[in-house]
Specification:
The complex is a heterodimer. By secondary structure, chain A is an alpha/beta fold. Helix content of chain A is 35%, strand content 26%. In chain A, strand 1 and strand 2 form a beta hairpin. In chain B, 51% of the residues are buried. Chain B contains twelve helices and two strands, in the order ααααββαααααααα. The chains are: A alpha/beta, B mainly alpha. Chains A and B meet through helix 2 and helix 3 of A and helix 6 and helix 7 of B.
Chain lengths: 234, 293
């Protein structure tokens, strides 16, 4: 579905991603792992169009999307839930969710997506008129995922879904992600919690120093004695 | 007592006009962090378009007003799309210098096109007035107040009940998150500047009906818009109404006790007081410039 070849990106003189290759297959759940500073957020930002790529190509179903702005990529089905959730904090939950529908032309699909998000996260349905900045951390994460889902994405990219959340909340968020995966949405998640990510994902890849250093089926990676090495010092 | 009531009423009518005028300035500042120093010149362009439409095309005022709004709306969209978007999300000083230069260019354009003559558009509403509770209300002032309030409510409805308003608000909170939500941010910026422009155009049409205007007269409107926005608080429609009314009433009261030459000085004194005592304005959030530098 998504095929990345020779991708480089960075800020100023610093290259955070160096000639990276990555494939995401339709329908799979790929977990992106790696230590802090490995370039995970930069990579996801480049895929969504927020951070410009210096070199390489990003193909979605064979079409190069490297030069498309984020809203055009969203129209093609690529959605990113950014790190730190980035809700429109002074707007209501409903306004935040509806803000996710600007890529859609059909109002009937907007309403259908709103119903689906409310079904997936019933707590949001109870709080549609609440100001998003006053939600709890878990509810904010649900709202951020909901906002991305409002655009009917085929590839949902999530950066650090569990960051700073209580274990119980993490569990319910992963239950929701499993449900989305079963509905056929392709998932690419960056995650600090390696055991949790590999327990749910189909495949994992480890990013370190801006390049992919390991990849394979989640079950194999989980037991690979080399895996911890990439997380200790770099 | 009757006199004070009359003066407060005059201030409220003027304040409604100030509130509407300030909103076009406030929305651009609040959403894009751009202090548009060319705002007054855009008001003047609205006034000139209105005058030409009435005197040369023979249109009624009710048709000239939307024409003025359309002209400044288009101008705003093109300016933002072609030039200002290159500076969007940069330092406030960059855009301040840009709009300063733009203001010079527009003043000189108006001088070339319309000469430096002071103009006015006499007798659009006549000089008649009606009376409420012993207070006299000129039809002209009442019409200006009604149009200004209609614009204010229209902007409120646009921002809160339409997809475009949702996109504008989302962009003002977090441009990157707006991009990720599928919002075409450069287009939203251009539309926001265009809406600010349309409000300037309507303000200009209203100015033409009751005040004299010239290419350099725009600056006092920019200053008044600035005062109202700071008084009421950035990015707040109720704030703009309160700020506008406050300025209108204080200006009118001052002209009762002081020479009318002190009118602007009183407005700025009020501005200084609010900046010292309550820097975020009476209703609004903190200034963008403070946060982003």
């Amino acid at each position: 579905m998504l095929s990345v070849r020779g991708l480089s990106a960075g800020y100023g003189g610093m290259m955070a991603i160096r000639s990276l290759d990555l494939d995401v297959k339709a329908g799979e759940w790929l977990a992106l792992l790696g230590p802090v500073g490995a370039g995970k957020s930069t990579l996801l930002g480049v895929l969504a169009g927020l951070v410009p790529a210096r070199q390489g190509e990003i193909c979605l179903d064979g079409e190069d999307i490297r030069f498309l702005p984020p809203h055009r990529r969203l129209r093609l089905g690529v959605a990113l839930v950014p790190e730190g959730r980035r809700l429109f904090s002074g707007m209501t939950v409903r306004e935040n969710l509806m803000a996710g529908t600007h890529a859609l032309a059909d109002p009937a699909i907007r309403r259908r997506n709103l119903d689906r998000v409310c079904e997936l996260f019933p707590v949001l349905a109870e709080r549609t008129r609440q100001i998003a900045g006053t939600l709890s951390g878990g509810e904010q994460q649900m709202c951020a995922i909901g906002r991305a889902l409002m655009a009917s994405p085929r590839l949902l990219i999530i950066d650090e879904v569990t960051l700073g959340l209580a274990p119980l909340v993490v569990k319910s968020l992963f239950t929701a992600l499993v449900g989305l995966h079963e509905q056929g949405i392709t998932l690419l998640t960056a995650e600090q919690n390696v055991p949790l990510a590999l327990a749910h994902a189909d495949r994992g890849c480890v990013l370190s120093g801006g390049a992919i250093v390991m990849e394979g089926p989640a079950k194999v990676l989980r037991d690979d004695p080399d895996l911890p090495r990439h997380f200790v010092g770099y | 007592m009757q006199l004070v009531a009359q003066i407060v009423l005059n201030g409220v009518l003027l304040g409604g006009f100030y509130a509407c005028m300030a909103l076009g300035f406030s929305i651009v500042w609040g959403v894009m962090n751009v202090v548009n120093l060319a705002y007054g010149s855009m008001i003047m362009i609205g006034a000139y378009v209105t005058q030409m439409a009435v005197l040369q095309l023979g249109l009624p005022f009710a048709a000239a007003l939307p024409l003025a709004a359309l002209a400044t709306f288009t101008m705003g969209y093109v300016l933002q799309r072609a030039l200002l978007n290159r500076l969007a999300e940069r330092s406030v000083f960059m855009t301040l210098i840009f709009t300063f230069g733009l203001n010079m260019a527009l003043i000189n354009l108006n001088l070339i096109l319309f000469s430096a003559d002071v103009r006015s558009l006499p007798d659009v509403f006549g000089r008649a007035s009606f009376t409420i509770a012993g207070l006299s209300v000129p039809y002209g002032r009442a019409t200006i107040f009604a149009v200004a309030m209609a614009m204010t409510l229209g902007l409120h409805a646009l921002l809160n009940w339409t997809p475009l308003g949702n996109a504008i608000k989302a962009t003002s909170f977090d441009p990157d998150a707006a991009r990720l939500s599928g919002i075409d941010v450069p287009h939203v910026y251009a539309l926001t500047f265009a809406i600010g422009g349309a409000i300037a155009g309507v303000t200009g049409a209203l100015v033409a009906t009751s005040y004299s205007f010239s290419p350099v007269a725009g600056e006092s409107y920019t200053m008044k818009a600035f005062v109202v926005v700071v008084l009421g608080g950035l990015g707040s429609i109720p704030g703009a109404i309160i700020g506008g009314m406050l300025l209108g009433i204080v200006e009118n009261l001052a002209s009762l006790f002081l020479d009318s030459g002190y009118r602007d000085a009183v407005g700025f004194t009020l501005l200084l007081l609010v900046l010292v005592l309550r820097p975020r304005g009476l209703m609004g959030r903190r200034f963008f410039a403070e946060v982003k530098g």
